[in-house]
Amino acid sequence: MYIIYKHISYRVVMDLSRLRQKILLLDEKRLSLIKSILQPLPMITGSLYQMHRPCGNPRCKCARGELHSSWYLSKRKDKKTKLIYIGKIAPEWLSTSVRRYQRYQKTLADIRKIDSEISVTLNQLRDAKLKTFDKARQ
Ligand SMILES: [Zn+2]
Q1: Which among 28, 33, 49, 59 is least buried, having the fewest CB atoms inside 10 angstroms?
Q2: Is residue 135 predicted with pLDDT exceeding 90?
Q3: At 138, is the secondary structure helix, strand, or coil?
Q4: If you write DSSP's letter for every residue of 43-110 in order, what string do you get?
Q5: Once rounded to an integer, what is the mean pLDDT over residues 109-120?
Q6: 69 CA to centre of ligand 1 in angstroms
Q7: CA of 42: how far to CAs of 60, 73, 82, in Å?
Q8: d(Cα 122, Cα 129) in Å, to the nearest integer?
Q9: Ligand 1 midpoint to CA 70 (Å)
Q10: Listing from the earlier edge strand, what are the strands of the sheet with 68-77?
Q11: Of 66, 85, 65, the residue nearest 75 (C-alpha)
């Protein structure tokens, strides 16, 4: 009986130190993500799309399959997607700014994910030490 009890308490201690270590590692990762976006460069929201379409003129080359291509910036606003015409070529500054925005958003999502992992692990740590009133009184 004594041996079994000792074994269980040893396992709880091990689990708790693993939980603490996990929280500290997540926090380290979280801080490095925050540092990576602390000094953002100019960004533009949306996504760039290249579309290939016929113009409708039956004598145009597009009627024989050589479609016209142009770039659009798509933006979501009030649950609607708006397409902004850019041109035949998407300028480098624009694609860079859009990429920066997407990377920033991805980092924010990663931080939120870590936040919730930290929260779940802190709850586990708390629950491991939770006692009912009746047991604490003994
Ligand atoms: Zn055409």
Answers
A1: 59
A2: no
A3: coil
A4: ---SEEEEEEE--S-TTSGGGGT--EEEEEEEEEETTEEEEEEEESS--HHHHHHHHHHHHHHHHHHH
A5: 98
A6: 10
A7: 40, 16, 21
A8: 11
A9: 12
A10: 47-53, 68-77, 80-87
A11: 85
pTM, rounded to two decimals = 0.74
Report CA(67)–ligand 1 centroid distance (Å): 6
pLDDT at residue 1 greater than cutoff 50: no
Give the SS3 label for residue 28.
Answer: helix
Residue with tokens 């929280």: 23
Residue type, 92: E
Mean pLDDT of 105-134: 93
Distance from C-alpha of 107 to C-alpha of 105, rounded to nearest angstrom: 5
- Please tell me the distance between residue 85's alpha carbon and the centre of ligand 1 in angstroms: 17
Give me ligand 1 centre to Cα 58, in Å.
Answer: 8
Distance 4 CA to ligand 1 centre (A): 81
Residue 73: count of CB within 10 angstroms of its CB: 19
Rounded CA separation 53/63 (Å): 10
Quote the ligand 1 centre to 53 CA distance (angstroms).
8
Cα–Cα dist 106/43, whole Å: 13
